[in-house]
Amino acid sequence: METTTLVLIVVGAIVVVGGGVGLWWLLGARARAGAAEYHYFRCPGCQRRLRYQRRQVGHKGECSNCKRELTFPPVSRAKV
Known about the structure:
Elements (H helix, E strand, L loop, with lengths): L2 H31 L4 E5 L6 E5 L6 E3 L6 E3 L9
Antiparallel strand pairs: 1-2, 3-4
């Protein structure tokens, strides 16, 4: 193999790996920035800790444990 070919292969490998790492970092940063923020409260029936998102406030749901119907509370009133 010629020296020029070997250098091109090494540089190409570095560019591919560097691009892959950069893309992985960029996609991870976007996922972290857009990650849903969860809030918690206790089921009034069985006291199980339930998780919900801000967009669910005021919507009806069901406890996964006791199947009681509930309404997701405003974030400021949510209890841990």
